[in-house]
Design brief:
The chain has 247 residues and is of the alpha+beta class. The chain has a single domain, classed as Alpha-Beta Plaits (2-Layer Sandwich), CATH 3.30.70. It contains seven helices and nine strands, in the order βααββααββαββααββ. An eight-stranded antiparallel β-barrel has the order 1-3-2-6-7-5-8-4, surrounded by four helices. β6 and β7 form a beta hairpin. α5 runs antiparallel to α7. The longest helix is centred in the middle third of the chain and has 17 residues. It is globular, with a radius of gyration of 17 Å. The C terminus is likely disordered.
Length: 247
């Protein structure tokens, strides 16, 4: 059953950050040669809550799909491409996910395969949401004017367990990723009237996006640490493993 990994790396020194930036191009061959890897993307991140057009030169992400959870854990821990990132990072954290619903495309393909979980069984337990969009150049200014208000609402929501904004190309390729304690809290945020709901309405009425993907996941487990700990450490039923990283 397909497993998705999202690996985040924080680089402390200027030299390490320069190395990470260069890997956006140089590491492609190494990741492409990683055994069992399926769909994969190298991403940068935004400053603040992560949902801004200003790059955060300290944080980079690797998203990948794998045939199963065991392979995902082994590859993200031991494959040379991932080891090189972790060796230079001050902090590294990976979350492992099982897709439950997928709608839309990413770079012309549907990268995630739903595990067929009965929606009724998703009422409890942590869930993750990922949205990815290619913003039309003519709509970029309008899109980014909306983002600060949306970011503030997400940041103020007491239910969100983790959030980050990443992307392949600044301004035009945007990925939002968030983790919620259960389906109800996720749904309440999505349906609540406010900046997020108004932005979604504008996307539909004004055609801001050239390509869209919406995916939901069960959270299977984590490895490593972020901001000094594991953001999901207190959630029952998750497999977590600590990994030391070199500064």
């Amino acid at each position: 059953m397909q497993t998705v990994s999202l690996s985040l790396y924080r680089f402390a020194s200027a030299r390490a950050r320069l190395w990470a930036f260069a890997q956006m191009g140089l590491a492609r061959r190494s990741f492409a040669k990683t055994p069992h890897i399926g769909f994969w993307k190298l991403c940068g991140s935004g400053t603040g809550e992560g949902f801004t057009p200003v790059p955060n030169t300290a944080v980079y992400a690797v998203l990948a799909t794998w045939p199963d959870a065991e392979t995902a854990r082994a590859a993200t821990a031991n494959a040379p491409a991932f080891q090189r990132y972790r060796a230079r990072a001050a902090e590294a954290w990976t979350v492992f996910l099982s897709p439950t619903s997928v709608r839309g495309n990413w770079a012309g393909v549907t990268p995630f395969a739903s595990d067929g979980t009965d929606p009724a069984k998703l009422a409890t337990g942590p869930l993750a949401a990922l949205t990815r969009a290619t913003v039309r150049p003519g709509a970029a200014a309008r899109f980014w004017r909306r983002v600060p208000d949306i970011s503030a609402v997400i940041g103020a929501d007491p239910n969100v367990l983790f959030k980050i904004g990443i992307g392949e190309v600044p301004l035009f390729h945007q990925v939002t990723f968030s983790i919620w304690p259960d389906a109800d809290s996720m749904a309440q945020f999505a349906r609540r009237d406010g900046p997020h709901a108004r932005a979604i309405a504008a996307v539909r009425s004004e055609g801001w996006f050239r390509e869209e993907l919406y995916a939901r996941f069960r959270v299977l487990g984590t490895a490593g640490a972020w901001e000094g700990g594991n953001p999901l450490a207190n959630l029952p039923g998750l497999t977590a493993r600590s990994e030391r990283t070199a500064a």
